Description:
By secondary structure, the protein is an alpha/beta fold. The protein is built from eleven helices and 17 strands. The strands form four sheets. Strands 3, 4, 5, 8, 9, 16 and 17 form a seven-stranded mixed beta sheet that branches. The chain has a six-stranded parallel beta sheet with strand order 12-11-10-13-14-15, sandwiched between helices. It has a two-stranded antiparallel ribbon with strand order 1-2. Helix 4 packs across helix 5. The protein is globular, with a radius of gyration of 21 Å.
Amino acid sequence: MRSTTGYGALRPEEELTLRTIERRELRPDDIAVRVTYCGVCYTDLSALRAHSHDGGDDLLVPGHEFVGEVVAAGAEVTRFRVGDQVAVGNIVDSCGTCAMCRAGQENFCVQFPTLTYGGRDRHDGTPTLGGFSGEYVVREDFAYHRPDNLDPAAVAPLLCAGVTVWEPLRRWGAGPGMTVGVAGLGGLGHLAVRLAKALGARVVVLTRTPGKSADARNLGADDVVVTTDEQDLARAASSIDLLIDTISAPHDLGQLLRLVALDGTLCSLGYLGPISLETMDLLVGRKSLASAGSGGRPSTQELLDFCGEHGITADVEVLPSAQVATALRRLAANDVRYRFVLDLSDLSDLPANGA
Length: 355
């Protein structure tokens, strides 16, 4: 086994503490990655909350959007070598044989993909432990080449928030001649604005907060619609070809659908719970309601390559890993613009508890 350190929680209500953790010895198609920066996603916070109430005794180490350097490679690895700069997202394996996997959509694997943390290894059944750690061992097929010209800390969130908005932008053909709306200006939304603009689309940000107008335009938005302003809503009615909805709390989809153009699509990404909808909001204008989640391997590398070509990264606040509790507390209070990233370089200076 390969020993490293990572921030984990074991028992109910336990805060993350630095521990010695074990990674598997490299299989022939594995690489070992020294983690340099790892994003802090709201999913991490949700997993810790759920873990603290399920009564389980598995160690939970969060972190599923990280970058680092290859420090070792298995005998059959062909895509990477020691010293390569790589990125890893929220999926580290899949069945590889179902229709979804064969289509390059491992995120929709019918046997369910193996998650970077909180999952089970497909070979030995051990729990996967995430990127809030010094080293991660992953199949080479689920690691990606990181653009060398971009700030690595700001690349990390592309592996989750970035690819989550990238797939629908590509699926519905965002580009010149299309108006893309983005509802919500957080971790997903700010990247949706940058990516849609770089693809050549006209971009409209929808927000409840007039004070976010300047931020939206600085990110590249061509227009801002304040959804609490009836006049703003009226002028934007039936004008948006693709509306990327990143709002994470329950909200009125009917209001958003009324902004969608003839034969346009509302793609709901942020809120994953039950919804209520008036059919007439779809019927008038032949509108579609869709959703998506995460991304497959081909689109993840495509996203990273595109961001490298266009200089696109996330807006991040970088904290030393020792301040992980601060990052989670502020994230819970929505006190971040737009993504926290942990700098793992301090791990060698910190004492770890036992496994």
